[in-house]
Each structure stands twice: as C-alpha cells, then as structure tokens.
Design goal:
The structure holds two protein chains of two kinds. By secondary structure, chain A is mostly helical. Chain A is built from 15 helices and two strands. Classes of the chains: A mainly alpha, B mainly alpha.
C-alpha cells in the first residue's frame, strides 16, 4: 500500500501527539516491567555481588510460609470483599434509580466515602474499631453484644477491613446507575404487561442487561482487592501476628526495609500473573453469562 | 406510569387501586428507610470521629463515650496541627500535588487528543496497550523505577512523585479524555479549518472549552490520588523536611502517640481539601464516568 500524503500527515501528527505517552510507556512502564522480570531471576545485592539464580526466587517462594500466608489473607479478603461491595453498590443504585426525592443529596452522601481516602481516613477508622471506646463496639453494646477487638483480633481483623471497604462501596453506584439508565424502558413495560413481578424483572431483564458492567466491576474489584496496601500499612502493619499480612504489604516489606529486590520482584511478577490469570478466567467464563446487545442484533 | 392511570379508571377503582397504591406507598417507604439507614451508616462514623476531635482529655476518658461533650474544645485543631510541623508538610503536599495534577492533566489531554483525532498506523494496538497497563500492578514497576530514580539522584526529591505523571502514564485518564474528545464532532474542526483558523486556534478555542468537564474530572481524580499518595513518598522521601502530609501524619502517630482527639483533629484537617474539591467538582465525575456504552 502506498501511503498518501494525507496518511503520512496523519501518521506524523498521531505520533507527535502521543509521543509523551510513548516515552512514559517505555521508560516508566515496559522498561521497568522487563527489568523487574530480570531481577526476579537474580539474587540482587545493593553492594554489587549480584548473581543469576534462575528460578531460585520462585522456588524459594513455594517454601516460604509467609508467602502462602499473605496469599491466604488476600484471598480471604477478596472473597468476602468483592461480592459484598458489588451487592452494596448495586443495591444503592437500584434504590436511587426509583424516583426518590432528594436524589442529589443521597447521591452525594453515598459517593462521599470515595473521596474520603488516605492515611487521615485510615486513622479515623482505627478509632472507630478501637475496643471499648470505638464507635462500633459502642453501638454493639446497645444490642447486648460485647464487640470483638477488631484490629487486635486475629479473627476479626480481615472482616474489619472488609467493613471499611463496604462503607465506601455505595460510591460504586455511579457506574451501576449509568448501566441501569441504559436498559430500555420498553423491556420493563412489556414485561409488566405480561404480569412479570419486579423480582423476576430484576433477574431476567436488569441483571442480564447490566452484565457487561458487572463483568467490569468484578475484574476491577479483584484487582483492587489484591492491591490493598496503605490502609493496612498504617492501621495494623500486618498484625496481629501475620493475620493481616496482605500480599502487597509483604512484598513491600521485602523490598523496602529488606532490600531483597530479587525476591520482591519475583513476588511482584507472581502478583501480576495471578491478576492476569483471574482476569482471563473471568473473561473466559463471561461468554456464558455476559449479555451483549450487539449479539442479538448480529443474529438478525 | 401508563399502568397507574389505567388502574384509576372507574370500575377498577374500588377493587384494585387501593391495594395497588398501598403497595406503592409501602415500597416507597421501604426505599426511603433503606436509603436513610445507609446514609446514616456513612455519616455517623464521620461525625463520631469528628466529635472525638473536639473532646478534652477528661471527656475522652468518660465511659460510656458520648457523641457530644460540653464545652467543646475546638482549639484541638490548632494545638494538634502545631504539635508537629504540619504546616511545612502541607506546603510540601501542595507543591507535589500541584505539579503532579498539572503534568497529568496536560499530558493526558495531549495524548488523548492524538488518539482521538489522528488515524496513525497502529493506533488501535497502541490504545489497547495503553489500556492494558491499567492492569499491571504498580509493584511490578516499583523496584526498577526506584533504581532508576536513584541512578538519577532523585531519591529524597519530589521529582519521582510527579515527573512520571507528566508522560500520561495513567491509562485511565487518557481513556476518559479520549472518550470525551471523540464525542466532539470532527466537522466542527473542519469547518473552522475551512474558514482559515490555525490548528492552535482550533485547539484553544473549540476543543479545549468543549472538553473542560473531562479535564475537570481528570484533574479531580489526579488531585485526590496525589494528595493521598502514600507509597510513593514512603519510598522516596527520607528526611522529615521533605515529608508530605500522609507521611507526617503517620510519623506523628508513631513518634508522639498523641491523644486521639489531636490525632482525629489533624486527620480531619488533612482530609478536608479532598472533601472540598469533591463537593465543588462532583457534577463532573457523576456524569463523566458513564461506562455503559463504551464497554460494549
């Protein structure tokens, strides 16, 4: 194909405009990624005597109880957090979807926790979870429950972090609301003329129609749960014992006070592969449960 | 709506309508009760911790704790803030955040414009690669980036915290802005070009004003992210004079083990700018993030 002068101009403009990203992509993304892959096969020492160890770091991982512990902690958190947060976000969106008075007010309130992030907010939660004087145990005492010590309890520390995430899960309704608005109203009208209850309308119309957004939220939720770091770092530092040793926290400790760059890189690449595997798995199975409008149009 | 008018026709009125409308009202009532309960669940923890900030030492020790004690000790906000060099940390945070937001927004816009307007070879492949980087955990690039920064003698400076952002490294921001820019009809530009407007003129007079809501959304997201950025400063900023607010706060807690009232007061003050930006800018991201169609 002979490039016309128009095409040549388009090419030149295109690459000129995106050149900042190409530089950033190479220097801050692809380059470091490949280098960390290389590091993961090294025993890297800050004092010079680095050596190639092949799969040594990965084999070491298999025998490292803390690696398995951190995987278990993160997996447990993900299994609890992802479905509960998604249900909370969708529930808020379904409630707000009806014509309610004060929609703007509720929407602002429910989205507020998404803005309330950072170390400052983490410390607010430390106080809410604190035994006896904390809000949570105080409220539980009204119903005669002696609350657990939350962040000081091996059993309750992970549920505490889940609770914290659910507090801000209502903010997810923004994306759900957009999806709900896209469902054609005529579908509901036709269904209610046929006498379908709102319960069955939800399962047979709403859920299939918003399933692409469900897929998106599922993937993002899993990624987000695997990357939990700063809240845990300041709130429990992995404790009590290792009961909240999240994966990224363990990785970070290996890298930054530890300077075990080889091992930490192997941990990082394993994390990447886990996330990749989950994403691919979710996308693979999605063919059976995600409904795309275009499919039907295509069949006509 | 069609249904409810049908139900009120004479003949049906006495049998169906009262039950229907009762159910309708009940449903509305349940909706409101649930919404209010949820809102309380969000607000009460914030108010509770805010109330802790204005208690005195004696009031803190009171058991069972109460939401409000009198007199209120507003001075905790000042004494807490001055108990550590938070003013200094504040200006560090402002500097880093300002540079990062500016660099991120401008570079994301430039790159998004390239992707939206020019059909260069490999555009789709490159765009998919840009989106794919969103999936790479930052920990994968963390260590080599650190080594690069050390090689550049940038450790213990602010550069590592804002320079990478100037190269549109956040795929999500570019994605958001590209969505916005593709929504602007190309005819608009072509018409202006016909009338002899220069490309720069078109960009500044047509494209930029039309993409302001998108730019605002990116700027807000980037502000929140950089203001609360914790891992970056933790890796790169070693000396206390360079600390940003999140690091300063953590150190305040660990070194001085302050009373909860001071700790809560400072935590709230640090979070306040995000809340302000959120209220000012919420109309942009409430509408801006509409994924529905773009996912298909």
């Amino acid at each position: 194909m002979i490039a016309t002068s128009h095409q040549r101009r388009e090419n030149r403009n295109f690459y000129l405009w995106i050149s900042p990203w190409i530089f950033g992509f190479l220097v801050f993304q692809v380059g470091p990624m490949l280098f960390s892959l290389y590091l993961s096969f090294m025993h890297w020492s800050p004092f010079g005597s680095s050596q190639w160890v092949g799969f040594g770091q990965y084999i070491r991982m298999l025998h490292d109880p803390l690696f398995w512990k951190s995987l278990k902690v993160t997996g447990y958190f993900t299994v609890l957090n992802v479905p509960l947060s998604m249900i909370a976000g969708l529930a808020v969106a379904l409630l707000l979807q009806r014509e309610v008075r004060g929609l703007r007010f509720f929407r602002t309130i429910y989205f507020l926790p998404r803005a309330l992030t950072g170390v400052g907010v983490a410390y607010l939660w430390v106080y809410i979870f604190s035994p006896n004087f904390g809000l949570l145990d105080h409220l539980l005492s009204y119903v005669g429950v002696h609350g657990p010590a939350w962040l000081y309890s091996r059993t309750w520390v992970i549920p505490a972090f889940v609770l914290m995430d659910i507090w801000s899960a209502g903010g997810g309704m923004v994306i759900w609301l957009g999806a709900l608005q896209d469902v054609p109203k005529t579908l509901y009208e036709a269904a209610s003329l046929d006498g379908a209850t709102s319960w069955s309308q939800f399962w047979r119309i709403t859920l299939p129609m918003i399933s692409p957004v469900l897929l998106f939220n599922l993937v993002m939720g899993v990624i987000h749960s695997f990357e939990v770091f700063s809240n845990v770092y300041v709130m429990t530092a992995g404790g009590p014992g290792t009961s909240s040793l999240f994966y990224v926290l363990y990785l970070f400790k290996e890298a930054f006070p530890g300077f075990h760059f080889g091992y930490a890189s192997a941990l990082a690449w394993t994390l990447f592969l886990i996330i990749l595997a989950f994403t691919l798995l979710i996308f693979r199975t999605s063919r059976t449960w995600v409904y795309y409008e275009t499919e039907v149009e295509g069949r006509r | 709506m069609i249904q409810s008018t049908r139900q009120t026709q004479p003949g049906h009125r006495n049998t169906v309508s009262p039950l229907r409308s009762l159910l309708h009202k009940l449903r509305a009532a349940v909706t409101y009760v649930l919404l209010i309960l949820g809102a309380l669940g969000i607000i009460v923890p914030v108010l509770w911790t805010a109330s802790v900030a204005i208690k005195s030492r004696a009031q803190l020790a009171q058991y069972p704790p109460r939401l409000l004690n009198f007199p209120m000790h507003w001075e905790n906000f000042i004494t807490g803030w001055n108990a550590a060099p938070f003013t200094h940390y504040f200006f560090n945070s402002v500097e880093v955040t300002f540079l990062a937001v500016l660099g991120t927004t401008v570079s994301s816009f430039i790159v998004a414009y390239g992707f939206a307007r020019f059909r260069g070879y490999g555009r789709n492949v490159l765009f998919i690669m840009l989106l794919a980087t969103m999936m790479v955990p930052p920990q994968v690039t963390m260590i080599p980036t650190f080594m690069l920064m050390r090689f550049l003698h940038w450790v213990n400076t602010f550069y590592p915290l804002w320079v990478p952002g100037c190269f549109a490294t956040s795929g999500f921001n570019v994605f958001l802005l590209r969505q916005f820019l593709t929504g602007i009809p190309r005819e608009l530009e072509e018409a202006a070009l016909m009338e002899g407007a220069s490309p720069l003129h078109i960009l500044s007079r047509i494209i930029l004003p039309l993409s302001l809501p998108g730019l605002a959304a990116v700027a807000i997201l980037s502000f929140v992210w950089n203001w609360t950025n914790f891992m970056g400063p933790l890796i790169y900023l070693n000396t206390p004079s360079k600390w940003t607010l999140p690091l300063g706060l953590m150190n305040f807690q660990q070194q001085f083990t302050p009373l909860p009232n001071k700790m809560m007061a400072v935590s709230l003050l640090i979070t306040l700018p995000i809340v302000v930006v959120f209220f000012v800018g919420q109309k942009y991201f409430m509408k801006g993030i509409h994924l529905g169609r773009s996912l298909q």
